Amino acid sequence: MLSIKDLHAEVDGKTILKGLSLEINAGEVHAIMGPNGSGKSTLGHVLSGRPGYEITGGSVEFMGKDIFEMETEERAHLGLFLAFQYPVEIPGVSNMEFLKAAVDAVRESRDEEAFDTVSFMRKAREACTAVDLDQAFLKRGVNEGFSGGEKKRNELMQMMLLEPKLCILDETDSGLDIDALQVVAKGVNTMRAEDRAFLLVTHYQRLLDYIEPDYVHVLADGRIVKSGDKSLALELEEKGYGWLEVEVA
Amino acid sequence: MSQEQIDKAIAKDYAAGFTTEIESDTLPPGLNEDTVRFISAKKNEPEWMLEWRLEAFRVWREMDVPEWAHVHYPEINFQDISYYSQPKSMEDRPQSLDEVDPELLATYEKLGIPLHEQEVLAGVAVDVVFDSVSVATTFREKLAEAGVLFCSISEAVHAYPDLVRKYLGSVVPRKDNFYAALNSAVFSDGSFVYIPKGVRCPMELSTYFRINEANTGQFERTLIVADEGSHVSYLEGCTAPMRDENQLHAAVVELVAMDDAEIKYSTVQNWYPGDAEGKGGIYNFVTKRGLAHTNAKISWTQVETGSAVTWKYPSCILRGDNSVGEFYSVALTNNMQQADTGTKMIHLGKNTRSTIISKGISAGKSSNAYRGLVRVGPAAKGARNYTQCDSLLIGDKCAAHTFPYIESKNPTGIVEHEATTSKVSDDQLYLCQQRGLDPEKAVSMIVNGFCKEVFKELPMEFAVEAGKLLEVSLEGSVG
Question: Which residue would you say has higher pLDDT here, B10 or A57?
Fold first, then answer.
């Protein structure tokens, strides 16, 4: 589904990714861990096409297509979703309005018919309940005055409604209390499917107690320095990242 | 023979002379007393109306073009303008929509304007006259039942001379400003509304005019009088783009709300803004003002997206005690457009209240200025004003300005002013695009959210159209 080969990328003229390679197949859950400044978040934004993130080498294929030729929204239409670490507010635009517009746009790109308002509202309410947000959030401005945890759950709700192929969660667990963490984990676990893959970017092993990954990768200085299964995450939890850097050096 | 009598005699001769001698339907460029007499004679106006126009002309001649607004345009030569032209005849009009500028049709399509209405707006020679006359008749019957007078101002001059003489120029005097004086001298047509005591107008005065207003010309004159305890909602303009050969538009709107009356006046202005380089486009210099008596309420709501240059300050004179004034505005400028718009709230009576919510959106290389005056007079004990003035910038080549003027002559008055300036941020756009929205759709959604407080003041069907209108007006502002 996703094939990253020798990816190099810069942000503001500074090289962040230095030859990253990664293969993700449908149905898999991958976790990317690593110390601060290793390039974890950059990877998500490079894949989704954030302005200002420049590709200087390598290639990325998603769903069999070279995505560097595509606009951000075209990648989204193809099924790429990024749950933001810090989602911005859009004052005055109601969550419901935003969700409907987004789902309509994605469905239109696939030549699927738009949902009528009533059935969409039903779906949105279900998603709202699934992420444990009050229905009132559908009427509020997008992320407007939401707490950190509410924003994260709102991201998850969008992910559920958009039904993407590849879900990238950028430190969705950071700043969440244990209850919220479980809500997020439950949401992700219900969405796990044969034709869907997940890329979890995280600092802590904690999230992986609830979402069991198939693969764990350690990112350091812009490259994947070690890959393994779930046990690698536990090892990291115990030893920290220091020993890996020594091993690489 | 007194001078007055001589003047009258001359006036009559000229008027008669002109109607017989000139067969043409369009006056050659130029403005002098004869032009005014010609216009008046064309409309078969009574003597008093002609005199009123002539006095306005004399005042106008002594006045200077106002230059204080934050707009720049080449000097207008008022002698280069033709002040009277008959609407195009059926033979001269496009015979079907196939002959109409496809770009214009594309815009109508985007705005979702029904086909038969597109034909009317584009000036196609279809037999809508019959249609609209019958529609108009139904409306008129309904209005007449309620005792509401609603007709063109030209018609009112003949049918209700007492009302017109009493109120015309009573809120915006002829000598008020340069463009008001010009309008008073040469006004082409417009509408007249009178709501009798205690009557609640049974319909929005809108649907009817949407069809009929198209040909009111460049110097529109509107007079609305709401008698004691009455209520009326009036809707002006159209979301469809209006093309017009006349570059200069100078309208005057006067509202009179007697004791306990309420007038709600909503405008959507979408005159041709000129091309992306700023060529062509309408200069829109408008004077709108309402006078509120005791316990009366006047509410202005405007959505301004058109014109190359806009100069417009719908205002309220809160003369009566406890009277209320409101101003809700969305002004959007794109490309090379310039707008200097806002309001004046003049608090004269005790416990008068006013609210100003202004949303300015600048895109492209445009310039958007809010200019507002809040004045609390010495007798306006307990007057209150709240002003909220927000600007939104799209891109980095546009400008937003705020010029608030606050004058308080009564220590018990409370005046609040809040202002914000924000940008459509790259992060907001990125979030929207990541969710699958293209940048244009994203910007229009963000802008609509920004304007929500004003849109909710618009009559229901208009609010939806206004949203679409912003979307169309913002095309090409990103990327």
Answer: A57
Distance CA A165, CA A192 (A): 10
Per-residue pLDDT reduced to its tens digit, B338-366: 999 999 999 999 999 999 999 999 988 99
Q: Which domain holds residue A106?
A: 2-248
φ and ψ of B80, to 5 deg: -90, 0
User: Within 13 A of A128's CA, how many CA atoms are on the CB side?
Assistant: 17
B403 exposure class (CB count in 10 Å sphere: 0-12, 13-18, 19+): middle
Query: What is the C-alpha separation between B247 and B81, in angstroms, rounded?
Result: 9
The reply to whether residue A158 touches residue B435, judged by beta carbons under 8 angstroms, is yes
Numbered residues of chain A with Cβ closer than 8 Å to any chain B Cβ = 48-52, 71-73, 76-77, 81-82, 84, 87-88, 90-94, 97-98, 101-102, 105-106, 109, 141, 158, 162
Q: Identify all chain B residues contacting A51, using CB atoms and an 8 Å cutoff.
A: 426, 430
User: Is the distance from CB of A152 to CB of A176 less than 8 angstroms?
Assistant: yes
Give me the CATH number covering residue A7.
3.40.50.300
Separation between Cα atoms, residue B63 and residue B83, nearest integer Å: 18
Axis crossing angle, helix B460-473 with helix B102-111, rounded to the nearest 10: 130
Interface ipTM: 0.94
Q: Residue B217's pLDDT is what?
A: 56
CA–CA separation, B373 vs B343, rounded Å? 6
**Residue A171, phi then psi, degrees to nearest 5:** 45, 45
pLDDT at A249 over 60: no
Report the alpha-carbon distance of residue A110 to residue A4 in Å, rounded: 25
For residue range B293-345, list pLDDT tens digits in order: 999 999 999 988 888 889 999 999 999 999 999 999 999 888 888 999 999 99
Instruction: Using the predicted structure, report yes or no on whether residue A32 has a pLDDT greater than 60.
Output: yes
Q: Please check whether residue B270 is in contact with residue B242, taking contact to mean a CB–CB distance below 8 angstroms.
A: yes
Residue count of chain A = 249
Cβ distance of A77 and B436 shorter than 8 Å: yes
Residue whose tokens read 């010495």: B378
DSSP state of A116: P
**A67: its two tokens:** 């995505």
**Among A103-112, A207-216, B10-19, B302-311, which is the least confidently predicted range?**
B10-19
Between strands B315-318 and B231-237, the pairing is unpaired
What is the SS3 assignment for A194?
Answer: coil
Q: Are B130 and B123 in contact (CB under 8 A)?
A: no
Q: At what angle do helices A95-109 and A117-130 cross, to 10 degrees?
A: 110
Any alpha helices (H) in B242-362, and if so which ranges?
Answer: none
- H runs (alpha helix) in B243-396: none
Which residue type, as a one-letter code, is found at position B195? I
pLDDT category at B120 given cuts 50, 70, 90 is low
Q: Which amino acid is at B140?
A: R
Say what the pTM is.
0.80
Domain count, chain A: 1
Q: Please list, in sequence order, all residues whose beta carbon lies within 8 angstroms of the beta carbon of residue A189, skipping any fewer than 6 positions away.
A: A210, A211
